[in-house]
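Hi P.,

Sorry for the delay on this. The queue was packed all week, but I finally got your sequence through. Input first:
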Amino acid sequence: MFPLAFSQIRDSINPSAVDMNRRCEMIALAVLMTATIALAADVKFSAAPTARKGGNTIEIAFAVAAPTDATVEIIDGGGNVVRHLAAGLLGDKAPAPFQPGLSQRLAWDGKDDFGKPAPDNCKVRVSLGAQARLGKVLFSSPGLAHDPRAAAVGPDGLVYVLTEHTCAKSTFLLQAYTQDGVYGKTIMPYPANLPNDRLAGNLYVAALTKPKGEPFPPEFGRDAKNPPGGMYPYVYGGVLKFPPAGGKVHYRTGDPKAAWPPAGSEKMIPAIAAAISPDAMIEGALWCRGGVSIVPGRMGSCGCYTSRFGLDYFDRVFLPDNGLFGVRVLDTAGNPLLRFGDYGNEDSAGPGSTLETPAIPFAWPQTVSVGKSGVYVSDFINRRIVRVDLLATVEETVAV
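Then the structure:
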């Protein structure tokens, strides 16, 4: 098993779940949010949202008091989102269709996410200051023969859970449940062919590669200062965003005859891959951000517990950060929006559980999938799926 402990804690461990001959000692690590994101007290509108019809479009305008994340959605009369218009961190590097700055003007063409006319009586909802709250712990039963390995949310709103038999490692089940954990159906085998329209668009790749100069988390201690001095940099990678044309990653080898840097490197992103090479160049990528683990290092290494990230309807990226027991959220420009989660064992399951802290508990966040009903995280060590609800600090709705 891959060691998880950064330092020691001797309480809050369920004796029935621990092999007394092998002590698993873990500690929750506090992570400070980036200073560029507004504090809760600063999350407010300096100009309330408005929506005015102009020709064939609706002009949406609003302003915020300080840099903060925002989402703009079109909702129907029942409160259902019919168009995901924009989301990201407002400020100098706000992603399109936002403009740089704190004052925003967006145009809506009156269509839903599928290009069809939206229903009448829609409203614009503008939300500021993303927050995370524990929704519900699903499928938590240490006696189950099958362990949850991954979860994905389908367009039908069902949660599709991939489970592996505890002993027969090659035995998998794919089953569908409601968002509250009620069994729906079993699908077997998992369909291997995806329609072509699912393969179009930008490419997001998790790799054991992160931008050179971007530090490892300080919680790694000496490993953060002198990689690859310990094991954590060997499994701590990043996510790369490529356009539809794709790209490649060049790794520097020990061959003295191999040219380095590669031709055209002035247009590439300098990077590091601790378990592969101290020097790498990313060609064709729109951006690269560190903060996803566990990522396998090289061919032949163990990848059985590799992490899987997810994207939502705004193409925001949700990265499982196993090393720090949480999930990181990036917008389409790679800006950090939110981090949630801390270490918690099987006794930690929110209000009413044996241990009500931390607010959102993970022991090994392995996969993340995002749907309209929330964020679903597969927790390998605790053998359960955790649903996390996304909330806003400030939100207003205006008629169109």
